[in-house]
Amino acid sequence: MLFPMPADVAPLLLLVAASAVILGTVLQRVSGMGVGLVVSPTLALLLGPVTGVLLTNITTVVSAALIGITLRHDIDWQRYRRLAPLIVVGSVPGALLVGAADRHWLEVIIGVALIGTLLTTALVRIPPMSGRLPAAAAGTAGGFLNTAVGVAAPAMLVYAQATNWQQRSFAATLQPIFGTMGVVSVLVKVGLGAAPVSELPLAVVSLVVAMVPIGIVIGGLVARRVPAAVGRKVAIVVVTVGALSLLGRGLAGVIG
C-alpha cells in the first residue's frame, strides 16, 4: 500500500517537490549535475531520508536518460567504462547503511556527507592524477554516495578536477554515469530490503517524473545563455541550504 500523505500537507509537498525537480533538471542540463544535489535534500526533508533518496535515485535515472540523449555526441564512453564497474562495489555498503541506520542518524549522515563533499570540492586543491586508480576510487565513492544520500556529483567533480576533464565531455558523460548509478542504487536497496518501494507516494512519484522533461526544455534554453560554472554555483547554494536543514532536523531528533 502506498504511503499516505495528510491532505493538508500534500499540495505544498507536491509544489515543493515539483519545483526542486525542475530546478535540479535545469541545473543538470546547464552544468551536467544538479538533480541529485537539489532533489536529494529536498525530498529527504519532505518524505524522510530513505524514501526521499530512493525517489531521488529514480528521478536521476529519468533525467540522465533524457539529457543523455540530447548530449550523446559528446559522451566519452571510454571514461564511462572505467567508472561504471565500480558503482556496484560502492552501492552495496551504501544500501546496508541505509537499512541499518536510524532515521534521525541517517539524516545527520546525509547532511554531513553533503556538506563535507561540497567543502572538499570547494576548498581542497586536487592534485593531477591519471590511470585506473582515480577512476576506481571515483566509481566506488560515487556508487556509495548515490545509494546512501542520493548525490554522487561531488565524487565525480573531484575526479574531473584530478584528471583535467573538459567540461563539455564531463557534462555529457555524467548522464550515463548518473543513470547507471541510479539504476544500481534502486536495485540494490530494494533487493536488500533497505528501501521498500511500497512506501513511495504515487502522487509524488508521478509528478516528479512528469517534471523532468519540463526542466530539460527550460534547461536547454537557459544553457544557451548561462555558463556551466554559474549553474554549478546555484546548485551548491541550494544543496547547502537543504543539507543544513536536514542536518539540523536529524540532530534535533538524535538529541531530543
From TrEMBL:
Keywords from the UniProt entry: Cell membrane, Membrane, Transmembrane, Transmembrane helix, Transport
Protein's cellular compartments: Cell membrane
Q: Which residues form a coiled coil?
A: none
Q: How does it sit in the membrane?
A: Multi-pass membrane protein
Principal localization? Answer: membrane
| InterPro entries hit by this protein | TM_pro_TauE-like, TSUP
What family is reported? Belongs to the 4-toluene sulfonate uptake permease (TSUP) (TC 2.A.102) family.
> Can you name this protein?
Probable membrane transporter protein
